[in-house]
Amino acid sequence: LFADDAARRGEPAVRAAAGVLLVQLAQLGVFVLILVGALAHLSARHGLAAYQVVASGILVLLVAGMVALLGLAASRPEALGRILSVAQGAANRLSRRFGRGPLVAEGWAERSAAEFSAAAQAVARRPGRLVSMLAVAGLGHLLNLATILALFPAFRAPVDPGALVAGYAMCYLFAVVAITPVGIGVVEGVTAVVYTSLGVPAGAAAIISLAFRGLAFWLPLVVGLVLLRRLRSFGADAPRPER
Questions:
Q1: What confidence category does residue 11 fall into, taking pLDDT thresholds of 50, 70 and 90?
Q2: Among 137, 123, 152, 177, CA closest to 26
């Protein structure tokens, strides 16, 4: 969506994608710290399950891959270009097997590597902006925790700080490492199970999990879909930038 909007405005779409990657990395990087504390609390309370450890490992690998991609873009853009060229060739060969034209335009790998490299080097030159981005990501997680915390007294359910963080961490973890789209159905169930295992009454745990998902995911999704329709309508009427 951000890349498409950038293209409509005549800006490099790949650079917008690199910016989105940086934001995601900041959010996940801060979350890993929260996750470590949550896993420690679950282990101390004998509530740590194998599936939670596996999902956490997958998330750490995902974050490591994103860091490696940005590091490669900053230090060895030519190597990133070769990797993207291989991906471009594979995508186009697959497309031709289905009787279609090239899926990725010629020169995409080189342009993408150059844009990713420029974005990564800009971050390296201005580390203060990275710190600001991490601070904003941390604030977002704190607001989410405050939202869940406000739900517990609303449903007259007790919760201690460790349990609060553990439930939120599992909620966020299984929204990222999801076996269904954005964890629909799985996130709510896992969050309720974690809170119940940490002493929250089962009924309250289920209601709080559903209420938080509604506030943190479904409500923004509905608002976003409405705004997306307006954005697309506006973009259709706006003059296309000259190439």
A1: low
A2: 137
* Residue 111 neighbours by CB distance under 10 Å: 15
- Name, in order, each residue with C-beta under 8 angstroms of 108's C-beta and a sequence gap of 6 or more: 84, 88
Q: What is the tens place of the pLDDT at every residue in 93-106?
A: 888 888 887 777 78
Percentage above 90 pLDDT, the chain: 49
pLDDT digits (tens, 9 = 90+) for 36-52: 999 999 999 988 999 99
Distances (CA, A) of 199 to 35, 42, 100, 173, 189: 20, 12, 56, 21, 16
- The pTM of this model reads 0.83
Q: How far is CA 95 from the centre of its chain?
A: 28
130 compared with 58, residue with greater pLDDT: 58
The 3-class SS string of the chain reads CHHHHHHHCCCCHHHHHHHHHHHHHHHHHHHHHHHHHHHHHHHHCCCCCHHHHHHHHHHHHHHHHHHHHHHHHHHCHHHHHHHHHHHHHHHHHHHHHCCCCCCCCCCHHHHHHHHHHHHHHHHHHCHHHHHHHHHHHHHHHHHHHHHHHHHHHHCCCCCCHHHHHHHHHHHHHHHHCCCCHHHCCHHHHHHHHHHHHCCCCHHHHHHHHHHHHHHHHHHHHHHHHHHHHHHHHHHHHCCCCCC
